[in-house]
Design a protein that fits this description.
The complex is a heterodimer. Chain A is mainly α. Chain A is built from three helices and no strands. By secondary structure, chain B is mainly α. Chain B has a two-stranded antiparallel sheet with strand order 1-2. Classes of the chains: A mainly alpha, B mainly alpha.
């Protein structure tokens, strides 16, 4: 289990599941969860390259940044979702189409 | 005394212009229609003129001359300078203009009382005074020409003051156009001189001529050209036709312009340019003057309109002045200009006063048929209008050349000059003969006018009770100018009624001509001095015989004028009808011109307009229609609209992938990335 490829496979799988979630879910919360998966896939890549590549501790630092960013993003995005729910009484992202046309 | 003269003359020039501007724009809204603006402006001008005149007398220097000029137009090598020239002639002339103009202003307040264009009338008087002062003050031909035209314009405006009358409108046009004929000659003369000398200033011209820059025939032509301008303004034969018609204007205007000042502008110009006139040009000038003098006098003896008599007498007197310039005694011409301005203006005011009284009387009688200017309706006015009578009588003595009066001195000087000219050149004996005959006729017709108006029996006794002396505004100028008809004012400080010797002859001394071939001023003076006594005896004799014949005819009635008129037959008819000049001009000049104009207008309309201009229009029309089609179908429809349509189609096609669903876009991005990866992996 100390091969770089293994980590990259897991990260790629996680990323694909995240993208799939973002693309297919109608529920706003589920879309957000997909985005979290994508971010964590990137994190795994950072840490893996930090361990096996020549990045030393830079990867870890980036990983920490991404976690902080993800937390902030989640806070903002959840606030938007709550607002959508308050206004439309649903969290289906397809219904939030007031700006279309 | 240095620049005071120039500074004063700037004020004298522009004050009347200021009055004109005020009157023309706000005159109607001012109290009394603003006549006080004009009158105060002209009185200040008069005071300044008198101050200058007194200054001139204190200086008592015949060579006194002040000049100031500025560059008006500067275009590299081409430069026009305008400026003032103040010498003794200028100062005297300014005083004459200001004095007569003031009298006219004051006289007019009564004569034009209640006129519908009262304030505009005063405005135009201001414009005229401004332009006349401009002519007098010019030190160059250029600005003189400008003011010359301005004088023509203001004369046109004032003659046509009552333009509702067709005769007044026609007379103003006639005056303007006749003056234009002379002005063309004036302009040619100016251009000839400028081409040769390169300057418009009198001093430069005199220098250039004496240096021989222009000589011979060219100089003669230039002189005659300038004189042609003088002929127009001073109404010399054959351009005299406008002046009698100009009597359609108000009588004070006739006194100011068509007797005293404006018509004197031509004489003034001749006096100024005298040094450059060649002997040939002078001969032409002399003959024009002599013919005008005798010719107008023969017309004046038969006229019945009081103003027409005065008009033709003015033409005749101007002929005298021009004759004096031609025979070389040009200071005598200027002297006669001065005395004539005084007594002729006065005669016109007198006639204005008589006409005013006649109007009044006819108005009382509700008579609108009788002509108030016709002397055949007057007679025996002397007790009714004593001041007018006495004042006019004094001026009549002056114009007839009776000793002790001003006209005697000046006319005598002119006739002496003409006589001496004939003594030197016996082939020109006609000049003094014309001169003396005209003097005799002058005495006759002036006394005929006096006798018909003021003496004898009244032809319309019913009017006599309503004839009254005019108001004091009209009588004042009459008294003043009547007093100025005495000789004494012109010969001070000497008291010799037989000689012109006085301040005038001391201050205005003739200068030598600058062209070769002319007699020097000294020779001319010498000759005139020798001829003086002979000329004086003859002129006294002819003046008294003229008066005597008039007395016998109209007071004693020993000869009946009617019988004499019948005996004279066609001569009387010719004179009464002014030698049919207007009729002949109409027949031989106006009508052919009109016919030619009509032919040309036919050519212009039928050929040029219809075929050439309209043809152009049609071609342009066809071409533009084709070009319009090309533009619409070619450019608009295909290029411009095609562009839009093309973009429209593409937009419609591409619009379909813009679903607005976030997830679709993510799908596209992912698909794109996958495709890129697949491409890269090969």
């Amino acid at each position: 289990m100390d091969q770089l490829n293994n980590y990259l496979f897991i990260a790629a799988a996680l990323f694909s599941i995240g993208v799939f979630g973002v693309m297919t879910r109608r529920n706003g919360i589920a879309v957000l969860m997909g985005v979290e998966l994508i971010l964590n896939a990137a994190n795994i890549n950072f840490v893996a390259f930090s361990r096996f590549g020549g990045m030393n501790l830079d990867g870890h630092i980036f990983g920490l940044f991404v976690i902080v960013l993800a937390a902030a993003e989640a806070a903002v995005a959840l606030a938007i979702v709550i607002n959508i729910y308050n206004n439309l009484n649903t969290i289906n992202v397809d219904d939030a189409s007031a700006l279309k046309n | 005394m240095d620049n005071i003269f120039i500074r004063y003359s700037v004020f004298i020039l522009f004050l009347p212009l200021l009055a004109f501007l005020i009157q023309i724009f706000v005159g109607k809204r001012l109290p009394r229609q603003g006549d006080w603006v004009s009158i105060s402006a002209i009185i200040i001008t008069l005071i300044l003129s008198i101050t200058m005149f007194v200054g001139m007398l204190i200086e008592y220097n015949p060579l006194f001359s002040q000049e100031a000029s500025f560059t008006w137009l500067d275009m590299g090598d081409f430069e026009i300078k305008l400026g003032f020239l103040v010498d003794n002639i200028t100062v005297i002339m300014l005083l004459v203009v200001a004095l007569i103009s003031t009298c006219t202003h004051i006289f007019s307040t009564q004569y034009l009382k209640g006129d519908i264009r009262y304030s505009r009338y005063f405005a135009y008087l201001g414009l005229f005074t401004f332009s006349m002062n401009g002519i007098v003050l010019s030190n160059n031909l250029m600005s003189m020409y400008m003011f010359w035209e301005l004088v023509g314009v203001s004369s046109y405006l004032l003659i046509g003051h009552w333009f509702e009358k067709d005769s007044a409108a026609d007379a103003s046009k006639k005056a303007f156009l006749t003056n234009r004929v002379g002005d063309i000659g004036f302009f040619i003369g100016i251009m000839l001189i400028y081409t040769a000398i390169g300057s418009f200033a009198f001093s430069d011209i005199f220098e250039g001529v004496s240096a021989g820059l222009i000589k011979g025939t060219t100089l003669t032509l230039a002189g005659v050209g300038l004189f042609l301008g003088a002929m127009g303004k001073s109404s010399q034969f054959p351009l005299h036709i406008w002046l009698p018609d100009a009597m359609e204007g108000p009588t004070p205007v006739s006194a100011l312009m068509h007797a005293a000042t404006m018509v004197a502008a031509g004489v003034y110009l001749s006096v100024r340019i005298f040094p450059i006139l060649t002997p040939d040009a002078l001969l032409i000038v002399a003959y024009v003057g002599a013919i005008t003098a005798i010719f107008a006098a023969t017309i004046a003896i038969t006229q019945n309109d009081i103003k027409k008599v005065l008009a033709y007498s003015t033409v005749s007197q101007l002929g005298f002045m021009i004759l004096a310039v031609g025979t070389g005694v040009y200071t005598a011409a200027f002297f006669h200009l001065l005395t004539h301005a005084m007594f002729k203006a006065n005669l016109f005011y007198g006639s204005g006063s008589v006409i005013h009284a006649m109007h009044h009387a006819l108005h009382e009688k509700h008579d609108h048929e009788t002509d108030p200017q016709d002397m055949r309706n007057m007679g025996d006015f002397r007790k009714r209008m004593p001041i007018t009578h006495w004042s006019m009588l004094l001026s009549t003595f002056a114009i007839a050349g009776i000793p002790l009066f001003s006209g005697f001195l000046s006319k005598d000087a002119i006739l002496a000059g003409a006589l001496s000219f004939a003594q030197h050149n016996p082939q020109h004996i006609l000049l003094p003969i014309f001169g003396f005959s005209a003097a005799a006729l002058t005495a006759f017709y002036m006394f005929r006018m006096m006798f018909l108006t003021f003496y004898g029996d009244s032809k319309k006794p019913e009017l006599l009770n309503d004839i009254h002396e005019s108001p004091k505004e009209m009588v004042g100028p009459l008294v003043l100018l009547g007093g100025l008809s005495f000789f004494i004012w012109y010969t001070l400080p000497y008291f010799n009624p037989m000689s012109t010797h006085g301040w005038f002859t001391d201050l205005i001394i003739p200068r030598d001509a600058v062209v070769p071939g002319n007699l020097t001023a000294h020779q001319i003076e010498e000759g005139a001095h020798h001829a003086h006594y002979l000329a004086m005896y003859i002129s006294i004799a002819v003046a008294f015989s003229g008066v005597f014949v008039a007395y016998l005819m109209y007071i004693k009635k020993i000869f009946s004028p009617e019988n004499w008129a019948k005996k004279a037959g066609f001569l009387y008819q010719w004179s009464l009808n002014k030698y049919y000049f207007d009729e002949n001009y109409n027949k031989f000049i106006y009508q052919p011109t009109l016919r030619l104009a009509r032919k040309i207008s036919w050519l212009d309309w039928e050929l040029y307009d219809k075929y050439f201009i309209n043809g152009f229009g049609r071609i342009t029309n066809v071409v533009s229609r084709i070009s319009g089609k090309l533009d619409y179908y070619g450019i608009d429809q295909v290029l411009v609209d095609g562009n839009g349509k093309f973009i429209n189609i593409f937009g419609n096609a591409l619009k379909k992938i813009q679903t607005g669903r976030l997830q679709n876009y993510v799908l596209y991005v992912t698909a794109g990335v996958i495709i890129l990866m697949i491409i890269q992996s090969f």
